[in-house]
Amino acid sequence: MKTTLLIMAAGIGSRFGGGIKQLEPVGLNDEIIMDYSVHDAIAAGFNKIVFVIRKDIEEDFRQRIGCRIEKVCQRLDVEVGYAFQDLQAIPDGFSVPQGRVKPWGTGQAVLAAKELLHEPFMVINADDYYGKSAYPMLHHWLLQEHEDNAFAMVGFTLENTLSENGGVTRGLCRVDGNHSHVVDVVETRNIVKTPDGAQADGVGVALDTLVSMNMWGFPAKKGCDPHFLEILESHFREFFLEEVGANPLKSEYLLPTLIGGLLRKKQCTLKVLPSMDKWFGVTYQEDKQTVMNSFRQLIEDGVYQKDLYSDL
Q: Which candidate, 156, 272, 160, places its Cα nearest to that of 217?
């Protein structure tokens, strides 16, 4: 059965200082974070990789990772595709607000790949390292039969996802009594470490809070495209009707916000697959050395080979 890893790599990376943070080398052989994501996904059984990028970074992207990944995937019989997130790709009847330069968010990023998604798929951020355990868990879930509106999410503890160098945005989750399903996701900005734990705009947040790191699973019944794509498309129009007018330059169509709304209306279920792995990523320029050190330690511990793809 075909299963797809969709990597959202179209972010501007403004907090990183203007660079294309998704393309920063962090491994011993100049691997970038996406290399480790692709490696772990293929090892777990995913056999199709789709990159969502911006057209203006296509040349750099292909030079830094795309062509190399294509060679690896060709050897392993894994399909590779590209989709482009475009500011102008909005619902009919609307126009891009004057002065808007920011892409429309993670919801639009997934929609950009709609024509390439005909099978169960997993979504991740390009600049996040999620650990190895999440991929087989989510792949196994995707191979099972599910209702159209049954989705899955890998959940991390907040403590394992904070940056030492500034505030981060996380989807804070509330789970049911069995700790098997998420009942609400609230996208929360500016969560920072404090001596006593963590705060978001002065309000304390428990370090063991389950958070979404944009690691989602969306099923598809045999012979059908994933139903979630229809939901994404219809709600994108609602987003323009209800939110863009109020905040034309900065409003974003975000997966945690959309799914949180569906949960509150009981229009979907969200299975939580908990991971105790430590997340890390390059949110700020200062994070880069920490990430490099972390990958070196993982190699020393035998989690990865020095020649990353040699064990596939």
A: 272
Q: What span, in angstroms and rounded, lies between the C-alpha atoms of 169 and 208?
A: 16
DSSP 8-state secondary structure symbol assigned to residue 21: G
Cα 263 vs. chain centroid, distance in angstroms? 19
Give the residue among 183, 213, 175, 166 at the shortest CA–CA distance from 37: 213
Token pair, residue 56, equals: 């203006």
Q: Are 98 and 60 in contact (CB under 8 A)?
A: no
* Total H helices, total E strands in the chain: 8, 13
Residue 294 above 50 pLDDT? yes
Report d(CA 220, CA 109) in Å as an integer. Answer: 19
Which DSSP category does 28 fall into? Answer: T
**Which residues lie across from 6 on neighbouring strands?**
50, 123
Instruction: Write the single-letter amino acid at 133.
Output: S
Location of structure tokens 């639009």: 108
* Site of tokens 């660079």: 19
**Residue 106, both tokens:** 């993670």
Asked if 185 contacts 263 with a C-beta cutoff of 8 angstroms, the reply is: yes
Output DSSP code: residue 97. Answer: P
φ, ψ dihedrals at 54, nearest 5°: -95, 150
Cβ-contact 118, 6 below 8 angstroms: no
pLDDT value at position 102? Answer: 86
Do 130 and 34 meet the contact criterion of CB atoms below 8 Å apart?
no
161-193 residue pLDDT tens: 998 888 988 989 999 988 899 999 888 989 999
